Amino acid sequence: MEMKTASxxxxxxxxxxxxxxxxxxxAGPIIIHLLFKTVGPSWLVAKWSAGxxxxxxxxxxxxxxxxxxxxxxxxxxxxxxxxxxxxxKLPYFSLTTLNYDVRNPLFGTTTDKEIDSKGExxxxxxxxxxxxxxxxxxxxxxxxxxxxxxxGIETKIPxxxxxxxxxxxxxxxxxxxxxxxxxxxxMIYVPIILQNVGNGAAMGFRVGLNKLINGCLIEPKxxxxxxxxxxxxxxxxxxxxNEGEENVGEYLLEIIYRDMFDNKYRQSTKFIISYENKxxxxxxxxxxxxxMINL
Length: 295
Fold this sequence. Notes:
Elements lengths: L5 H7 L1 H24 L12 H39 L9 E6 L29 E6 L2 E7 L2 E5 L4 H8 L3 E5 L5 E5 L2 E9 L6 E12 L2 E2 L8 E3 L4 E9 L7 E10 L5 E13 L2 E6 L5 E4 L2
Parallel strand pairs: 3-11
Antiparallel strand pairs: 1-2, 3-4, 5-6, 7-11, 8-9, 8-10, 8-12, 12-13, 13-14, 13-15
């Protein structure tokens, strides 16, 4: 059973304490005044003046208030020290879903991870038919795409898009009589590094690229959550092909996360895509301010 200390009672009943002090300050002088106004037996007649009694009473009240103030300050400081000690040693677990790659020749070959943690596109050979593997890793990179006006988040991209990025928007196309032609396919590819430069881990970290219509998000979708530790980086690549005016519009890139005290935050910036002279253009806002939100 929890024992109720005097400090606990004081902290729970501040109004009562204030009333007691007010009554003591007001009632004391009134009682002294009445006693000196009342005519009583000779043994009750005081040998000192009412002013001396009031001065003595005031000294006692002042001393009591000072002692009570010091006591409450001491208790408050002790509670603050205990709370800070609790926060300094507070354990907390974040939930991170791991990505995995599988290669099994019995069911066809696969490629390794296309985008590594530094944002480099990695192409792995498929000629080793005897290679088996199962790999798990924390998600540290993703590709934000706009395809036919529909934004999305991908962790892997098709082989043709990878080659297009590596070749800077130039692709090979087979022509007549076995000829191969070089075709320029205008595209947008913007590599972005997000680094946690704060003093704590960002948990429940989610990334979303969603279309804005009249300032409102249309069917917002986000990448499954992960955690980004202090000083850790997360790579994003922004990719869109020249598909005429289908991709034109405003898009909002958001990252949403929380700290270990369950405070939730959002940082966002706009991608604006326009189509001029049969060319696709993009602008990105430089502001990426943090705001606290309640989800």
